[in-house]
Amino acid sequence: MSVSQKLRLYSETTYECPSPRDFPSICPTLDISATLDGSGKNVLVYRPNGEQVCKMQQGARFGGSTVTATRWKPNGQFIAVAWEDGIVRLMNLETSKSAHNIQVLPKDSKEEIQYLAWATTRISLGDKDENTKKAVHKDSSAEETIANLPRQIMFLETDISLPKLSPLPTTSAGSGEDSLVFTLRSGMDFMFQPFDPQDADSISIMLSGLSDGKVHLSINDSLPISSFSYPPGSALGSRQLIHHASHPLITTHTLFFKNCDDGTTIEMVPFDMQFIESSSINLSLLASKLTTLHKLLRYIRQTTLHIQVEYSNARDLHTRFLNSVKQSLQEDKRGQHDVVTAFYHATLTGNIPRKMKEWLVDSMGDRGLKRWAKAAIGGLKGIRTLVQQYLIPALERMVIILSRLKGLAQFYNDNDDVGLSVPEIENLVGVVSCLLLVANRIMIFTMEELACFTMFNTWITVTLDKLLSPSTTNEVTEKEVSIQYQKVLLYIVEYLEESPIKHHVNTDAGDEAFDDILLRRSSGQSMIDVLTNILEQEKAPGDAIAEDRKVAHLGHLVGMLDRSIRRVLDSVAAAQERGVRFGETVRMDLGDTLSKMDSRMVAHDRKGSITYTALTTKNDTHKIIFYRTSLTITNGISSTPETQTSTLSLDPGRVIDMKFLNDNVLLALIDPQNNAPCAIYIITLDALVWDPSSSSNTSHIDIPPPLPLPADFVPAAMEVFEASSVRNQLPARVCLLSENRVTWKTFALEPTA
Question: What is the pTM of this model?
Answer without folding.
Answer: 0.86
